[in-house]
Amino acid sequence: MKTIIKTAALTTLLSITTVYGGGDIAPPVVPVAPVPVAEPADTNPFYVGIGVLWAGVSRDCVTPGCPVVRLKDSTWGGIIRAGYDFNQYIGIEGRALKATLDSDWAETTHYGIFLKPFVPVSERVNIYGLLGYGHTEIKTDCAIQDKFTHNGFSWGIGLEYDFSDKDDDYENHKKNEDDVLEFDRPFDGHGDQETRWGMWIDYQNLLHNEGPDNYKANIVSFGITYDF
Questions:
Q1: SS3 for 81?
Q2: How distant, in Å, are the alpha carbons of 29, 60, 62, 213 from that of 68?
Q3: HSE-up of 202 (CA within 13 Å, CB side)?
Q4: pLDDT tens figures, 16-43
C-alpha cells in the first residue's frame, strides 16, 4: 500500500514539474479578429442640372424726334448646366439658357463657361460664385427689330442644397454591407458633394451697360442637380 501511495505522489510531482518547469508546452492560441481594410470609393466629380429662370432686360430706346426712353422687360425660360468639382472648394461649370416666355419685346440667349469657387457652410449647403466668360444675344423690338450680341465677363452668386448627407454618401458607394470606405479625392461629405440629387438657386449678371443703348441683363435661376 505504501508503494502505491509513493508511486502516485511521484507521478503527481513529475506532472507539476513539467507544467511549471519551463517545458515545451505551447501557450494557448487566442484568435484575432481580422482588421477591416478600407476600400477605395470611386467618386465622380461630374454633375448636371436643369431648371427654370426669370430674366430681366433693359435698354435705352431712341426714337427719332422723341426723348430717350428706358425700356424694361422680364421673361421666363429654361437653363441647363454641367460642371466638374476639382475638390470641395473649386470647380468649373458651363451653362446655357434661353428666355422667351411672356416676353413683351425682348428675348435672351446666353452661353457661358465659369470658374466656380464655393464654400461648404454645412453638411448640406454650399455658397458659390461664378466668374467667367459669356456669349449673350438679346433680340428686341424697339421701333424696329434688332439684335444685340455681347461677348465678355459675366458673374454670379448662388446657393446649393444637397438632399443626401454624409452617411448617405458612404452608403451609396458601398458594394457590401461591411465595407469600410476611403474616398479617392478630398471629400468630407460637406456642401453639394452629393452622390445623387440636389437643388440650386442663383443670381447671374449677364451684361451691364453694354453697347450704344446701354443694355443690362440679369437672371435668377433655380432647379435640380444630379451628381454622378
A1: strand
A2: 96, 6, 5, 10
A3: 27
A4: 444 444 555 555 666 665 655 565 656 6
